[in-house]
């Protein structure tokens, strides 16, 4: 099996493969283990720890060594923004964005899309249009970019920085197309890719008593009350350029979360990497169950957009004191603070089933392919073999991990091994409680059959590739994430 040429070998322990938590699924904690990287430490409570990555630095091995070791979520710093992805109307360019996407996913990391609609870093041709023409250009842009990354990303920052400091809307060219531009962007995004979580992202919204925070809060509240699709709020958390950690940061996070959205710290940097501020912002996230993860805005100080403030966790290849303060806060977080989704786990513990099968349904995404485990043509016929297919959020890709270790679909069918030997087919069948329908979802990304002890495995990466069981070999074609 290891000799199969199509399989990319694992690159060692740095590749902390992820198994995302399904719905409200709890995890079995590895209580005595203090993880030694940021990603693994965050994963202990079901969260992620990410970084912004610049495509131009991927040739720098000192940079990539740290990034591959420490993080399990990646945001493209500039490469998925409108100016990069649609430089001319209708002509999309994903070369740099894909470079980052491929680098990250080849290492088992997830990717956050940033950003679709923003007043800054617009393509120059947006400057020459306005009104309904610009509105249509925004919609077409969202559709074009999201189609390319459909089913592949964990989050999208759909709209970025749309508010003024006083809590009013920023008077951008997008705002001038009509006050409903933000909800139109979110509705367009949901239709374009129902599988990805849709976020609003902004800076200076960390202080609960600040007018801008309240303005954004009211928008999210309004969206939730009217059914405008929105899943998350990104608090950029730039404690640089004069701003600093507010004492009520946790209140802000929990207040947003109480509206029914996930929250995340999306672009963290802190002037001179204050250890107390880094520890405090990390702790605030750990204390809020729906705070799903933290992303720092660059790897080393020299990579920062504000490098003169030395605001990041690494100086050259050296871990700074702030790194240790963050790592300790992540390691101290108990498993009871597990968020509801978007996280990855460390290799040791296994994911425990939801009690009574009441957990949310989620997709099973192949680490090598980025595609979902899918029942062809939404068939409910016993014996239908499951395959890989582009993730589409539909019911034939929605699996629930039950308390009896079944991976259930349509409420009545279970993922079923048609045998226990290498190459045995994996199909759907009426749930019957037998061990060929029981699966261990392991935090190294594998899913093993209780009867066979073998791993879910797929020979290729394309649409229609059939799933089988095979001897576990640690390779990417046997790693899946449940999200
Ligand atoms: O790549 C060109 C280079 O060819 C050229 O010679 C050079 C000349 O100035 O510019 C280079 O592009 C720069 C690019 O970063 C890549 O380094 C742009 O000028 C510069 O404007 C751009 O800055 C980015 C900034 O967003 C633009 O608004 C920063 O890298 C990026 O870190 C920053 O990220 C933003 C988030 O997207 C949103 N939140 C705030 C955050 C910090 O400003």
Question: In words, what does this structure look like?
Answer:
The chain has 483 residues and is α/β, with parallel strands linked by helices. The protein contains 10 helices and 23 strands. Strands 1-2-3-4-5-6-8-9 form an 8-stranded parallel beta barrel, surrounded by 5 helices. Strands 15-16-17-18 form a 4-stranded antiparallel sheet, with no helix packed on it. A two-stranded antiparallel sheet has the order 10-11. Helix 5 (131-148) packs parallel to helix 6 (181-192) and helix 9 packs parallel to helix 10 (321-332). The radius of gyration is 22 Å and the shape is globular. Mean pLDDT is 88; it is low at 1-31, 340-351 and 353-359. Bound molecules: ligand G3I. Ligand G3I is lined by residues 77-78, 120-121, 160, 203, 236, 267, 305.
Largest sheet at a glance?
8 strands, parallel, barrel
Rounded mean pLDDT score: 88
Task: Tell me the overall shape.
Answer: globular
Query: Can you tell me the residue ranges where pLDDT is under 50 for at least 5 consecutive residues?
Result: 1-31, 340-351, 353-359
Ligand inventory reads:
ligand G3I
Helix content class: 10-25%
Beta-strand content bin: 15-25%
Derived structural class: alpha/beta
Strand order of the largest sheet: 1-2-3-4-5-6-8-9
Radius of gyration: 22 Å
Counting H and I runs of at least 4 residues, what is the number of helices? 10
> How many strand elements?
23
The separation of the N and C termini measures 28 Å
């Amino acid at each position: 099996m290891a000799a199969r040429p199509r399989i990319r070998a694992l690159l060692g322990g740095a590749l902390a493969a992820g198994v995302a938590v399904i719905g409200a699924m709890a995890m079995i904690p590895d209580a005595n283990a203090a993880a030694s990287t940021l990603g693994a430490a965050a994963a202990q409570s079901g969260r992620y720890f990410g970084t912004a990555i610049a495509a131009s630095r991927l040739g720098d091995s000192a940079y990539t060594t740290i990034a591959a070791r420490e993080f399990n979520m990646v945001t493209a710093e500039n490469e998925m923004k409108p100016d990069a992805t649609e430089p001319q109307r209708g002509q999309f360019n994903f070369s740099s964005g894909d470079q980052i996407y491929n680098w990250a996913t080849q290492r088992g990391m997830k990717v956050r899309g940033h950003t679709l609609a923003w007043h800054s870093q617009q393509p120059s041709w947006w400057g020459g249009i306005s009104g309904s023409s610009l509105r249509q250009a925004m919609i077409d842009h969202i559709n074009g970019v999201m189609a390319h990354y459909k089913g592949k990303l964990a989050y999208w920052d759909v709209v970025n920085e749309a508010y003024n400091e006083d809590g009013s809307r920023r008077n951008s060219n997008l705002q001038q197309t009509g006050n409903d531009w933000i909800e139109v962007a979110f509705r367009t995004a949901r239709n374009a890719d129902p599988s990805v979580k849709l976020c609003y992202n902004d800076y200076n919204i960390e202080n609960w008593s600040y007018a801008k925070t309240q303005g954004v809060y009211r928008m999210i509240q309004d969206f939730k009350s009217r059914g405008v699709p929105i899943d998350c709020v990104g608090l950029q958390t730039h404690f640089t350029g004069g701003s600093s950690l507010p004492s009520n940061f946790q209140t802000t996070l929990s207040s947003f979360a109480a509206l029914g959205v996930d929250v995340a710290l999306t672009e963290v940097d802190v002037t001179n990497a204050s250890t107390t501020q880094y520890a405090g912002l990390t702790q605030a996230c750990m204390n809020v169950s729906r705070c799903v993860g933290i992303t720092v805005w660059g790897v080393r100080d020299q990579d920062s957009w504000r490098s003169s403030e030395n605001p990041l966790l690494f100086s050259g290849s050296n871990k700074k004191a702030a790194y240790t303060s963050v790592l300790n806060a992540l390691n101290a977080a108990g498993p009871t603070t597990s968020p509801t989704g978007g996280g990855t786990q460390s290799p040791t513990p296994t994911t425990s089933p939801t009690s009574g099968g009441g957990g949310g349904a989620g997709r099973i995404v192949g680490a090598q392919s980025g595609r979902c485990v899918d029942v062809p043509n939404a068939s409910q016929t016993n014996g239908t073999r499951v395959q890989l297919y582009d993730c589409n959020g539909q019911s034939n890709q929605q699996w629930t991990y039950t308390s009896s270790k079944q991976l259930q679909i349509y409420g009545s069918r279970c993922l079923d091994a048609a045998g226990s030997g290498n190459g045995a087919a994996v199909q759907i069948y009426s749930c019957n409680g037998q061990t060929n329908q029981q699966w261990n979802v392991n935090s190294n990304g594998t899913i093993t059959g209780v009867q066979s002890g073998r791993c879910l495995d797929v020979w290729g990466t394309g649409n229609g590739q059939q799933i089988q069981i095979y001897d576990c070999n640690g390779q990417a074609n046997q790693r899946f994430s449940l999200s």
